[in-house]
Design a protein that fits this description.
Elements (H helix, E strand, L loop, with lengths): L1 H13 L5 E5 L3 E3 L3 H18 L2 E3 L2 H8 L4 H19 L3 H17 L2 H4 L1 H17 L3 H14 L3 H4 L6 H16 L7 H11 L3 E8 L3 E8 L2 E9 L10 H12 L82 E7 L7 H12 L5 E8 L14 E8 L1
Parallel strand pairs: 1-3, 1-4, 2-4
Antiparallel strand pairs: 4-5, 5-6, 7-9, 8-9
Helix pairs in contact: 2-12, 4-5, 4-7, 5-7, 7-8, 8-10
């Protein structure tokens, strides 16, 4: 018994300890699509996992941890955005503006700036339209600028059909964003995110349409590595050697040093006009809404053209690497259940094929139940006069 215990302890001690967790925050895109920036982020997550010194969180893990204990805020924010959209359709821009500003604060409190960019981009999309309705073109463009900071190709990938005035304002904001100086989150902000996520280190970065990729790793409030590279194609897909090369350089850099990018400072550039240049404080639930003072508060509302509708209001972008992780529910072993409203089941070719297959299988007991169900008068589909059948085949 003692020998077995010693062997068990030796095996247990030989198992390597799990690497410290690291959060790779979704990269900011300049002139690239939201999807392309997400691919670059995933490329670095895969590279950190391959390197083995850190265990990287997936994007949805980051979203869930940031919003932990703030689920009510997210739910409330979605409801507010939906209600604000309806108010805009009814030419009540001022009322919609109040709800959208509240939704913005709720999203910031839940960490949506770094975990649910598509949802907070919806808020700014409608904020911009509300400001335009009230004749505040400058504030409208600022809202659209924040929208592009969160979702770089929102106008083409998510916004839907909008009026000419909205299109013009978004176009000016997009040009300003893409021509701006790419910046990273400040060390103070990264440290706050690390505390919120309970991780050892945080990685942030930018990717530009000209092929420039910059990545920085911070830990314990200090820059551990800052690397910039030029690539021929954007984005390099996950698995490209450029990711492991940059991660190796990051982890091999001395604290505070900058690899291949000595001209960059460790903090964010204040010249960036978007409030995404820094993170809101996570401390004590205190957040600045980021909204500028309102202009022309007594101005009458403009034309009541219907606001644009995002393709997936309140929904998060689902990156390609998550699709195969979805649960695939399959029928229990040896059970086939076919239900629904359709033509008489005896007229379907597969009914006789399935029945024959059961009968041919010698030594197998089968029970076939064919039931004709009356339609539910309270069901929305009661107008369908076709017969409802359920086929159940169970084998031993």
């Amino acid at each position: 018994m003692l020998r077995f215990l010693l062997i068990f302890l030796s095996v247990l001690c030989s198992v390597p300890a799990r690497s410290a967790e690291i959060a790779v925050i979704d990269f900011r895109g300049y002139g690239v699509s939201f999807d392309d920036a997400a691919l670059v982020s995933q490329g670095f997550r895969d590279a950190f996992l391959e390197e083995g010194k850190f265990f990287p969180l997936e994007g949805y893990d980051i979203s869930d941890r940031l919003s932990s204990n703030y689920e009510d805020d997210l739910s409330r924010a979605r409801s507010l955005v939906s209600e604000a959209r309806d108010l805009l359709n009814r030419s009540k821009a001022q009322d919609a503006l109040v709800l959208l500003e509240e939704a913005e604060i709720a999203h910031k409190r839940a960490g949506s700036l770094f975990g649910r960019q598509s949802q907070i981009a919806d808020v700014y999309f409608y904020l911009g339209q509300a400001q335009l309705r009230l004749g505040r073109s400058t504030l409208a463009q600022e809202a659209f600028l924040r929208m592009f900071a969160a979702y770089p190709d929102y106008d083409t990938a998510r916004a839907g059909r909008v009026s000419a005035s909205v299109t013009s304002s978004m176009s000016r904001a997009k040009s300003e964003w893409e021509s701006g100086n790419p910046t990273l989150l400040s060390i103070k902000s990264a440290t706050a995110i690390a505390r919120r996520l309970r991780v050892a280190a945080v990685v942030v970065g930018t990717v530009e349409s000209n092929g420039s990729i910059r990545v920085r790793l911070s830990q314990d409030g200090q820059v551990k590595g800052d690397v910039r590279r030029q690539v021929s194609e954007v984005p390099p897909f996950p698995g490209d050697p450029i990711y492991t090369e940059m991660v190796s350089e990051l982890l091999g850099s001395d604290s505070g040093s900058v690899g291949n990018s000595s001209s960059f400072s460790s903090g964010s550039d204040s010249s960036n006009k978007s409030d995404f240049a820094d993170a809101p404080s996570f401390a004590n639930g205190s957040f600045d809404s980021g909204s500028a003072p309102t202009e022309n508060s007594g101005r009458q509302e403009g034309p009541s053209d219907s606001p644009g509708l995002p393709d997936s209001l309140g929904k998060d972008f689902t990156p390609w690497w998550k699709f195969w992780e979805r649960d695939k529910k399959s029928a229990p072993l040896n059970q086939i259940n076919v239900g629904g409203v359709r033509e008489p089941i005896t007229q379907q070719w597969w009914f006789w094929a399935a029945t024959g297959a059961v009968v041919v299988g010698g030594g197998t007991a089968a029970v076939i139940v064919l039931s004709d169900k009356e339609p539910d008068p309270d069901s929305p589909s009661n107008a369908d006069t076709s017969t409802s059948y359920t086929l159940s085949i169970a084998t031993d």
